[in-house]
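C-alpha cells in:
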C-alpha cells in the first residue's frame, strides 16, 4: 500500500514541536476544505481551467505539509484537466476527500 502521509516532511517543516505540527495540519485542513469545495464546483460545472488551477494548488500545499497521497491524486486531476477530460474527475475528487479526512484525523 502506498504511503499517504509523510510524517518526516511535517517534522522537517515544523521541527519536533508537536503543537506547531498540529497547528499546521489544522491550517492546511481549513484551507483545503475551501479548495475542495471550489474544486467540486469546478468539476460539476465542467471548468477544466479552474480544475487545473485548484488541483495544482492542492498538489503543492499537500506536498508541503506531507500529505503525499493528496498531492499525487491532485497531480492526476491536474493532468486530466490539462487534457480537458473531466469525465474521471469525480472519482479523483472523491479520493481527495477521503485522503483529506485522513489528514483531518491527524490534525485532531
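Residues out:
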Amino acid at each position: 500500500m502506498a504511503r499517504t502521509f509523510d510524517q518526516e516532511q511535517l517534522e522537517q517543516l515544523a521541527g519536533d514541536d508537536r503543537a506547531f505540527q498540529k497547528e499546521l495540519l489544522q491550517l492546511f485542513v481549513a484551507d483545503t476544505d475551501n479548495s475542495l469545495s471550489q474544486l467540486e464546483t469546478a468539476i460539476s460545472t465542467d471548468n477544466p481551467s479552474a480544475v487545473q488551477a485548484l488541483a495544482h494548488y492542492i498538489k503543492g500545499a499537500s506536498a508541503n505539509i506531507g500529505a503525499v497521497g493528496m498531492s499525487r491524486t491532485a497531480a492526476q486531476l491536474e493532468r486530466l484537466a490539462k487534457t480537458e477530460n473531466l469525465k474521471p474527475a469525480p472519482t479523483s475528487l472523491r479520493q481527495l476527500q477521503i485522503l483529506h479526512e485522513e489528514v483531518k484525523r491527524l490534525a485532531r
